Amino acid sequence: MMKKKEKLENGIEEEEDGVPYEKLRPTYTHEALCYLMEKGFLKYCISQNGDGLHGLSGIPQDKMSELHGNVFIEQCEICKKTYDRPYYVMDDVASQYYEELEDFGKSSVKKPKYAVQCDLCGLSHRTGRKCEKKGCKGYLKDSIINFRDRLERKIIDRAWENAELCDLMLCLGTTLTVSPANELA
């Protein structure tokens, strides 16, 4: 399914749902946080955003908990090997199939053969690609946490550990109403 695109004055093509994730760039705030980390003032970053902009700003993956996943990261459902991609990994067609099925009892899109409905969120996390690790061939899944999905235990645990160690916590761009992230503050 192709999305309708429109060329903007600045030359960026905008999809009907907005700017593609690959075209997004870190803001001055993302860059300031990275600078504070480089200077040793910021020790760890906990994010509820799935857009990957903290990583693009230069914050290392091991210094960050992306609680709700990252649209550029997929993981093998068998061996758990992780792939950090330069492109959006989610399969919106498979998710649209399940969304329409739930909303209307039928779908205008054909279900991809690899799509499997998640028992928790009702969407498909499979991206359509398979693991590249020799002998594995497991399906790759996006890392996004949708409504009703559970946070990844190791990611939330690292967030808790670092929140408990901090002397000062900066909370930016949040109303602190989404649980369990609001409990970290």
Summarize the structure.
By secondary structure, this protein is an alpha+beta fold.
Features:
alpha+beta, 5 helices, 185 residues, two-stranded antiparallel ribbon, 15% strand, single chain, globular, disordered N terminus, four-stranded antiparallel β-sheet
Structural class: alpha+beta
Rg from alpha-carbon coordinates: 18 Å
Oligomer: single chain
Order of helices and strands: EEHEHEEEHEEHH
Strand order of the largest sheet: 6-5-8-7
Classify the beta-strand content into a percent band: 15-25%
Question: Fraction of residues in helices?
Answer: 10-25%
How many helices? Answer: 5
Q: What is the straight-line distance between the termini?
A: 41 Å
Specify the overall morphology: globular
Main β-sheet, in a few words? 4 strands, antiparallel
Low-confidence parts: 1-8
Task: Give the strand tally.
Answer: 8
- The chain-level mean pLDDT equals 91
